[in-house]
Amino acid sequence: MLKVTHKGLYHFLMALFLLSLCLGIAGFDRISAAHAFARPEVASGIRWPQNQALPTFARAQYLDVALLSNAPQDFILLLQTLQGIVNRQRPQIYVINGVPNEGQYTWLNDIHIPYQVYNDPWQVVNKYIHQAQGMVIFDHSVLDTINVATTFAGIHSGIVVSPELATRLSAAPYNLPLLADFRGRFASGLEANTWQYEHLWPQTNHRMLVGLQPAQSVMVPQNNWQSFRTILQESQPIIDDLNRAIYTMDLSRELGSDAVYLRFADAFPQDGWGPSVRQISVSADGKNIIQFVTCTQDEEQYLFDHGRSGCDMSGIDPHRFSDGPRYFVYRFVPPVGTRQLVVNAEMWNEFNVSVSNIKPLVSSDQLIPGSLSLREYAVANQAMVFWLETNNNAADSALFERILSDVQPGTPYLGWFDNEPAGVRLISRHGVYVVASDSFDNMSVFSGLQAPSYPIKPIATPKLGNNIYVTFTMSDGDNAQYDEHHMRYVWDQDPARGSVPLNWSISPALLDIAPVMLNYYQRTATRNDLLVAGPSGLGYFNPSVWPQDNLNRFLNVSGRYLRKAGTNIVYAIDVGSPLPAYVAQAYYNQMNLNGLLLNWWYPQSSSTINSRLPISTQLDATSRDGIVAAIQQNAAHWDGKSPLFIAVSLLAWNPAPASDAAYIAQRLGSRYSIVRGDQYFQLMRKANGLPMYS
């Protein structure tokens, strides 16, 4: 079935006319705080000036929309790489995979580009496949060859295909030639990535790096854990390791089969503070048979299913953790004839431990080919695509370091990591920042749709009094795919938005990758909505790890992006507290901020940088009531003789974050004043005798 949609020719032409007027208002390096900012459109191809973080594509004039519903992963991979080739000259293909949070056509209808929807996505392939120069075949047995094939395809304008699809596409009516076949070429993912670094990297675009998983886990069925019984569970929300101890669990009831399976999951998955496990020991009939520290090679032989759990290697106490829907499962084989099996686990936080002697139906460690939306953008820009572990894998990390050493400080890394803290530290050491965007859809289309960016809508600052001033800030806005999907959903659907002052963190990189999205949030913000920059400026990095000799320069670039994105507040995530003096000074000197927020896992406090810039760390808790209690605890010793300032971080992924803020505000007494971030920092300035921001 074919659906043709034209969104009102008159309104479309008028929108183009008005947009063309806006586009002439300012250039990249000349912006008045009183006016909107927008870049010029690109007639064709890709434009990437030296002073621009990410490229600008040509404006789409018409889009063929491919609906993907339960499409095989190898077909998605084919279509996304074809989209990158076609959209490189002028965006013409738009892909909708399933039903995103904001709705299938929400953004598409907003951009006022005529489009045609194809329920059979092969029709889109058939229309454009002649633009591909040939096929690049990946190897099912080494799935990292999907990324190698993607890099090769970007260089040679090919499409990435499975061996099965290659058979179809090499025959009539396609008759596509073979550009490269990576089957049987490599014994491991590391070998494949090393080869592409040595042979393909010199031919790629070094102004961006792209990190994408080449595979996805098999679907874990709902009944996968039905045979497991809970043997130990934390009953209270705990996020500060107050319950850290060695817990003893008797698994003797599960004896009698080949193995025993022990699963660690999150007791309160809604807040993201699941179990942290440091070490495990197993004894059979009183004799120790197994002992290991987590996140080591000794542990790996017992892990049946990693369950997307992570390793925190940031301190002297590395440990495995599984937050939210994540988990991990060990498989222990007791000696024949064992009568008593006991496990001791050093762990803390919100654990839910269950056990079974029946092997689960599947393990999420079983991988199948996978494709993420950003792949089309990587192909279009001829970037090298790779996936290297940054945590507990020395060989992968060493290759990652070699790649990072080849790029200039200030290079963006798009995608994500196997481990957030380790990955961010690694790239920060080389002056590279991350824009979380692996699941951002149709970036090549949105980066060509220019729209003006507006400064902050002014709001009066209340008179300073001896009150407790509280400001709420949403996390995760640096995540561009959050801005595209979940943020749009809660922004439009949460009925409490606008009822309470709330700071929404957002990525300044939207100026390059999706100006229309930034424009939408600016235009539709209420007086109580304030857009602030997510960590730690233009992108996410640890400022104290960034090369010191480049920090001022990069923060200067970040400052320009913040001003053009219409915000003057940023929150930073670093590896320690407080910020080193030289980092704090660089933020003050280069970014012209109203104020600086620090991420929530430090004790809440407020101070100033060199008696010039107000800075406030953020507190957090595991639930609405937990946040209320944390705020009240921070105010417990307040004497009421001077103002008190408390910054609070709210979890962005909650289904109704504005409602969370409203709930918390309603339960605080009259001595509390909830304010926007700009008001908060202006009040802090007045309380500390600092110059008012203007």
From TrEMBL:
Record-annotated GxGYxYP putative glycoside hydrolase first N-terminal domain positions: 77-128
GxGYxYP putative glycoside hydrolase C-terminal domain location: 466-685
GxGYxYP putative glycoside hydrolase third N-terminal domain residues: 373-447
Organism of this sequence: Dictyobacter halimunensis
Domain GxGYxYP putative glycoside hydrolase second N-terminal: 133-203
Name of the protein in its database record: GxGYxYP putative glycoside hydrolase C-terminal domain-containing protein
One Pfam assignment: GxGYxYP_C
Domain of life: Bacteria
